[in-house]
Amino acid sequence: MYRTAPLGKRPRWWTELPLIAVVYGLYTAGRLLVRGDVQSAVDHGLGILDLEKTFRIDFEHPLNRLFTSHPAIGIPADFAYAALHYLLTPALLVWLFRRRPDHYRRMRTWLMISTLIGLIGFTLLPTCPPRLLDDAQGFVDTMHQYSAYGWWGRDASAPRGLGGLTNQYAAMPSLHVGWALWCGVALWRHGRATWTKVAGVAYPLAIALVVMGTANHYFLDAVAGVAVMGAGFLLSRPAVRLADRIRTRFAGAAPAETAGTPAIVSGGCETAAGTALVRTSSPGSPAGAGRPGAPERLREADASDQIPRQPARGEAGDSRTDGAATAAR
Fold first, then answer.
1. What does the radius of gyration of the chain's CA atoms come to, in whole angstroms?
2. Mean pLDDT of the region 177-199
3. How high does pLDDT run on average in the chain?
């Protein structure tokens, strides 16, 4: 993964924070605004489940039975689902920003693009998660079963009473799995200790098991989350290059506007074209009687001032040439 330090500078936190806040705000608002029709979401969920049964990849059922029958597995899994998605991802962003600034922009851009692609999936394919399907499908909502141990209620990982602020039908693709994959790549590629390599492999695999065991996602949701991250990764390089091109163009626009404008130098002060500055004595001092070290003031010249004409560069050259010729004669 190549380095992407922007124009030879470290990224600045006062530009990164608003950018990340805007993208995450758009993502959150989009999830809430595109809830979709409940019946359509249920139909999509049943369709995914039927497709998995056809190919015998419906791993959600055995995992869900394991998590519901063993609290020692189900309770930590619920905590992992409710917390790590929102804690580890920003923590790794900060770590990359501080410790791996050469790689930060590419990784940040990859995460943002993938998140926006996931929002498109939520919009086009609202999907009911397994835990909200009819009881006849055989799924148990572990978040509800173990809610006494955590801060969440029946409304997924939202704190009690705030379920209305979540979109429970934003299951396809699974960005829990997608973001976990991003975290795994960050740990594997940019961590230097052995444990970071191990965590980089274990974390996304564990989250994939958690989202299915808690009945929050189907196996195909997890597959779609990986695909979304793959698409975001492919788009991140041209996106960074485009951003650099735009930055370079705007950075070079200001000097280009004044490159052909001559400057007038008056009394050691460089001024804009058409403006000259003249020295004046301090108030109350007679003209020309300035004390040594007394401050002088500058003002713009007007029609009453007599400013000696400065010979142009070509004229000065001609006078020197004429003087040399006279001396030779």
1. 34
2. 96
3. 78
